[in-house]
Amino acid sequence: MKERLEALRTEALQELQQVESPQQLNDLRIKYLGKKGALTEILRGMGALSAEERPVIGQVGNDVRAAIEEVIETKQSAFQAAETANRLLAETIDITLPGKQLPTGAVHSLNKVTQEIEDIFIGLGYTVAEGPEVETDYFNFEALNLPKDHPARDMQDSFYITDEILMRTQTSPVQIRTMKAMNGKPVKVICPGKVYRRDDDDATHSFQFNQIEGLVVGPNIRMSDLKGTLLEFVQLMFGKQAQIRLRPSFFPFTEPSAEVDVTCAQCGGSGCKMCKQTGWLEILGCGMVHPRVLEMGGYDPNEVSGFAFGMGVERIALLKYGIDDIRHFYTNDLRFLSQFVRM
């Protein structure tokens, strides 16, 4: 039996040296070491051996198994290494090839301007307040000193859903809601959002546009505070060279009221076609909060005062970027929008 085992070892090692694939290697492993393999068949005859021969033959059988397993493991490792190398070669990326150019997105110009305005006023100590776009007549008009028979309502042709519900025409209702929520405490907020008016779309008007209003209420708030705030905003938005001027105007919810002009960004105030040779461009409206509005918001106008201002985001963007038609913001022309990727 010892000679048969030695012969089996020689035969198996010779065949293993000729293996060229993992499948062949597995077949030979089964042939020699499997449950019905050649080595198992020989060792089954150990029962007929004497007690002295069994340990000797058993040791030889273990040596033969170990020799065959060692060669199989070596071959298996070699096949695995070769497979890994081939896979790495097949999956290699040629870094010398040019990469695929993916289109670069950008924040929409109106969102960009809105964020910039918010950042400026947050830096000045303001908080951001928001409110519903579908508003009640009370908050949109009456609480802002515009009763139902007030002629100034004609200034804002509105989208009414019912007699008492409409799409808000301004973000001023957020100011009233904020004042009521503050229960007489000081207020310092800006109110950004979409507003809706029955306007025909043209180069300077739209039935939907974005507005940002500001409100400050507290003791000893003066018109000079309003002017200083707006000057600081304008210079942060358009540059330190920018100046403002206030012109008397009328708004039902402020008294006194003013229109604010900024020096023309194109000519620096010397006069050009953009500013119609005046050197100034209208930018926003403002004023001291009307005592009646303070009362509607839950404040005593004898103890506190306040100022408010409102601006159209599209108007600011037109001036900041030198755009001549508001409709560019809404037509989704990639030639227009892609200009703001670099800004």
TrEMBL record:
Binding locations of Mg(2+): E255
Gene designation per UniProt: pheS
Keyword Lipoprotein listed: no
Native species: Paenibacillus baekrokdamisoli
Listed cofactors: Mg(2+)
Official protein name in the record: Phenylalanine--tRNA ligase alpha subunit
Domain spans labelled Aminoacyl-transfer RNA synthetases class-II family profile: 111-319
Family: Belongs to the class-II aminoacyl-tRNA synthetase family. Phe-tRNA synthetase alpha subunit type 1 subfamily.
Subunit description: Tetramer of two alpha and two beta subunits.
Keywords: Aminoacyl-tRNA synthetase, ATP-binding, Cytoplasm, Ligase, Magnesium, Metal-binding, Nucleotide-binding, Protein biosynthesis
EC category name: ligase
Alphabetized NCBIfam families for the sequence: pheS (TIGR00468)
Subcellular localization: Cytoplasm
EC number(s) given by UniProt: 6.1.1.20
The keyword ATP-binding appears for this protein: yes
